[in-house]
Amino acid sequence: MVKFYESTFAYDYSFPAVTLAYFLRYPNPYSTHVLSTDVISRSIDAAGRLHTLRVHRKSSRLPSAVLKLLPQSVLGNISGGRSESYILETSTIDVNEGWMRTESKNLDWTGILSVVEKQEYRRHVPVDEGDDFSVGAGTTGVVTTVMFKSRLGDRLRARATRKGEAAAEDGEEPKKGFLASWSTSGIQRSIEAIASRKTENQLGKSKEGMKIVLERLRHGGLVGVLEGMRKDREMAFGREGVWKNA
C-alpha cells in the first residue's frame, strides 16, 4: 500500500541562488532537528552534471498517534518517542539546462514506514529576460513528490499468524492480541495518513528555511549565509554545538 503527496512552489530567486541555498540550508531556524550533514561523495560526469551524495543525521520524534498503534516489541528503545535517524540524499544538477533533481529517503524505521521525497527544481526564464541567468535574475520552480509506504501491517500480521500456528500445533487456543481488531490494510493506512500530515507540515517549514537562506544570500552574499549558519548553530546547540556541515 502506497500513499503519495505532491506540491509545487516557485522561489523568486534565480536558479543558481536556489541550488546554492539548497546545499547551505542546514542549519536554519526551521531545522533545529538536523544535527549534522556529511558529504559522502561528489563528482562531475561527462555531461558536466554535478552528482552529490549526502547523509543527514536528525533528531526524530514519532507522532504520538503512531506510537499508540505500535506494540513495544516494534518500538524498541525509544525515550519519549524521540530517537536519532539518518536520511540519505542524492542530487544531480545540470547548470546548462537549468535543472536539479534530488531524492531523500530514510535509512531507519523502514520496517515501520518508508518515506521517499523527490524534488525537481527548474529555472524559469521570463520572456524579456533573454540569456541573463545571473544570481539576481529569474525565478525557480520546484515540484515535490513524497511517497509513503508502510509494511508494518504485513509484518505484524505475519508474526500473529506464526504465533497462531505455533499455538495450534501445541493444542492451545490462539490468543487475541494487538491485531485482533485491526486489519493489515487498516494499520498501514493509518500510519501512512499520519505521516502524510506530518510531512505536509514539515515541507512548509522547509520552504520557510530556504527563504531565510536565500534572503541572507541576497543581502549578504555567501558570507551572510555562513554567518547566519553560525548564529543558528549557536542558538540551537550553544557555542560548543555538535552541528557540522561537511
User: What is the typical, i.e. mean, pLDDT?
Assistant: 77
> In total, how many beta strands?
8
Low-confidence stretches: 176-182
**Based on helices, strands and strand pairing, what is the structural class?**
alpha+beta
Tell me the span between the first and last alpha carbons. Answer: 37 Å
- The tally of helices reads 5
Give, in order, the helices and strands: EHEEHHEEEEHHE
Largest pleated sheet? 8 strands, mixed
* Inertia-based shape: globular
Strand order of the largest sheet: 1-7-6-5-4-3-2-8
Write a structural description.
An 8-stranded mixed beta sheet has the order 1-7-6-5-4-3-2-8. Strand 5 (99-106) and strand 6 form a beta hairpin. The longest helix is centred in the last third of the chain and has 54 residues, at 184-237. Helix 1 crosses helix 5 (184-237) and helix 4 (152-169) packs across helix 5. The protein is built from 5 helices and 8 strands. The protein is 37% helix and 32% strand. The two termini are 37 Å apart. It is an alpha+beta fold and 246 residues long.
Layout of SSEs?
Elements: E1 2-11, H1 15-23, E2 34-44, E3 50-61, H2 64-69, H3 72-75, E4 82-94, E5 99-106, E6 114-124, E7 139-149, H4 152-169, H5 184-237, E8 244-245
Parallel strand pairs: 2-8
Antiparallel strand pairs: 1-7, 2-3, 3-4, 4-5, 5-6, 6-7
Helix pairs in contact: 1-5, 4-5
